[in-house]
Amino acid sequence: MNVRKSRQLAAAVMVVGALTVTTACSSGNSNGGSKPAASKSKVEATAITVGTAADSVGPAVAEPGAKKGGTVNMIDRDDFSHLDPAQVYMNYNSEVSLLLTRQLTGYKLQADGTSKLVGDLATDTGTTTDGGKTWKFTLKDGVKWQDGTPITSADVKYSIERTFAPFIKSGPTYIQTWLTNDKYREAYPGPYEGKELDAVQTPDAKTVVFNFKDVHPDANFTVAMTGYGVVPKAQDTKEAYDKKPFSSGPYQIAEHVTDKSLDLVRNPNWDPASDPIRNAYPDKWHMEFGVQSQQSTERFIADNGADKTTFSFHNQVHPTFIDKVKGDATLKPRTLEGLTPYVDYYYINNSRIKDQKVREALVRAFPHQQTRQLQGGTSYGDYATSYTSPTVLGYEANDQYDILKKPEGDPEAAKKLLADAGATGQTIVYAFNNTPLQQKVTEAIRIALEKAGFKFVPKPLDSKTYYDAIGLINNEYDLYWGGWGADWPTGYTSLQPVWAGSAIADGASNYAHVNDEAINKAMDDAVKIADPVAQGKAWAAIDKQLQAKAYSIPDVYQRSLSLYGSGLGGVKFDSLFGLQYPLNIYVK
């Protein structure tokens, strides 16, 4: 995917969209009305590259006009659910971890706004000589923990080993399964019983070698995930580590009061010369929790006192303020807009809707324009014309059902398909989050589907248990909303977890219950393609296969709108996580 056989890849690849790596799991919006916003309906184009050893040398690209000093404030709805790297999978946890935790590789923000995979703790993005079955990384000189002790290959090995421990329940599991098998906890219990994992070798203090069971050409992207960040054995407090991890980054935790505040100060042993990713302009970060999006929006608009030097990782502009924010020219200089990594779908339950013509009729009839308008219009997102996000390597627009030509739906075409299938009047049971906004969205869907010849039965669900309900294999619904984002910017984590037959299980991520042998095989084959361009084309072809079978309804590529205080500079939108990016922020 990003490595050519026998040598490291250092080639630029053009894709449509921003480079993105984010959580693979449902989108955090949960379809309840707190949708982000943006003013553009057209997808942006940029470049994604895999860097060289030279690109992996620090310091990071400087922010023009930035200066050191001062305290940056952050307000957000929730405390970070995890700070232990091995437990980090949600995007806002990953975003704050940029300040504390380093990985073997990471993403360097370029001066032109594009991103590049580079060596973080490693001297480069890794090497493989067998197509991705064996990966070797060499650590940089001078990388240290917050107490000044050197970060070694033994630390990296130990950090991987502890991801197998039973108390690690929330992080990614790619590396664990690749090193052992799908039942990785049975294969290795973790390091706390004194056993080591032979599949990770450390021939010296600077070298780490991963020996996978199969080829994984994109493993250098995988180890960029916060979930594979480093943890020192000497400071490992197991479960307690989640609240106060030991720093390898530019800042360390001074105080963490759960659900109230988090305070960071400089890590004196972080060396910017070793770090091509992180700038560290503020002296301190003060983060407060329990601030709802309506409150934070009001405070950012007012821009008083300490709020002038405040930003928010996660809180978007509240829907009731979207028009005001987008219409106020004075707010424009401190407004961030961008394409997030998430695709919203309306999943068709293929266990219940087995006739392809009926599924095609649902796709044709769906009222994207009406439902998008109810949820913020172009601020809600761009019409989706593929199963993959434009932020994914190899993305190709694929409007097989003329969504862009008829976003309001095509009831006549849908009627004909139903008639051809002998299914006129077929009942569609639609499950939805029972919120005021989604009640309106549901009504728009009802009108459109009934106009196309379906019988429509709405089923409201409690938002707290929504995913539990639709995640059952034997659920009683035909159609339901869901969102997904890739773990790193390739088709593998964008498509395989959602559409592979192996992902059908209670609570698993194949919500549409798709089990297509030809597509399963194509996915298995695509994963093993080392050339990134060729693999991107393979995933694009799989995307087209999925659309051709009308397995579900892609709806929108989610967008984002957020504000920050006028006293801050260098606040940027992070297309990696769809949030505000901290590494260039400074106090004016």
Automatic annotation (TrEMBL):
It comes from the Bacteria. One of its GO terms (cellular component) is ATP-binding cassette (ABC) transporter complex. Keywords: Signal. One of its GO terms (biological process) is peptide transport. GO terms for molecular function: peptide transmembrane transporter activity. PANTHER family: ABC TRANSPORTER SUBSTRATE-BINDING PROTEIN (PTHR30290:SF83), PERIPLASMIC BINDING COMPONENT OF ABC TRANSPORTER (PTHR30290). This is Peptide/nickel transport system substrate-binding protein. It comes from Kitasatospora gansuensis.
